Amino acid sequence: MPTSANLPRALPDGTALRLLRADDSAALTRAYLRNRAHLAPWEPVRSEDYFTPAGQRSVVLGQLGQYGAGTGFPLVLSDGAEILARINLSGIARGPFQSASLGYWVDGEYTGRGIAQAMLQHVVELARDRLQLHRLEAGTLLHNAASQAVLARAGFERIGVAPRYLKIAGDWQDHVLFQRILHD
């Protein structure tokens, strides 16, 4: 199982980055309901069940299962009982690859405050120092300039465009791919 050492971490606005917990389903439901319209252009089409405590409990248990297997590292940004952001490492591969995919979102009310940048900084350190990964990758929609700027400021380099990479908002959409090499 990957380590959760050095978590939670304090971030801007008195928030804390911490490992996802089994009891987070209600808070995640509230966060997704608050941000449904904000996140819809950037995410897959979700079933109505996704926006319920039972749906979120299923997601949480699946991600905690990946954490236990060492293939995922699900984190939340919390402010008391509320979740304001998510950042996840998924598809953690070992052997000669030592890599993971990165995904994140920030509550619409909290964008533009440096939260995504601070989360990325901590996750890069976690991936390099604790998980001993060599590389992180991330993808954004072609028109997601804000996320591309966050990734660039966090030291990610653009490596190309993947046509029809993911089905987002109901359509197969092209993505700009980024990577960050963590070790020389």
Automatic annotation (TrEMBL):
<keyword id="KW-0687">Ribonucleoprotein</keyword>
<dbReference type="InterPro" id="IPR016181">
    <property type="entry name" value="Acyl_CoA_acyltransferase"/>
</dbReference>
<dbReference type="GO" id="GO:0005840">
    <property type="term" value="C:ribosome"/>
</dbReference>
<dbReference type="InterPro" id="IPR051531">
    <property type="entry name" value="N-acetyltransferase"/>
</dbReference>
<keyword id="KW-0012">Acyltransferase</keyword>
<dbReference type="Pfam" id="PF13302">
    <property type="entry name" value="Acetyltransf_3"/>
</dbReference>
<feature type="domain" description="N-acetyltransferase">
    <location>
        <begin position="15"/>
        <end position="183"/>
    </location>
</feature>
<protein>
    <submittedName>
        <fullName>[SSU ribosomal protein S5P]-alanine acetyltransferase</fullName>
    </submittedName>
</protein>
<keyword id="KW-0808">Transferase</keyword>
<keyword id="KW-0689">Ribosomal protein</keyword>
<dbReference type="GO" id="GO:0005737">
    <property type="term" value="C:cytoplasm"/>
</dbReference>
<dbReference type="GO" id="GO:0008999">
    <property type="term" value="F:protein-N-terminal-alanine acetyltransferase activity"/>
</dbReference>
<dbReference type="InterPro" id="IPR000182">
    <property type="entry name" value="GNAT_dom"/>
</dbReference>
<comment type="similarity">
    <text>Belongs to the acetyltransferase family. RimJ subfamily.</text>
</comment>
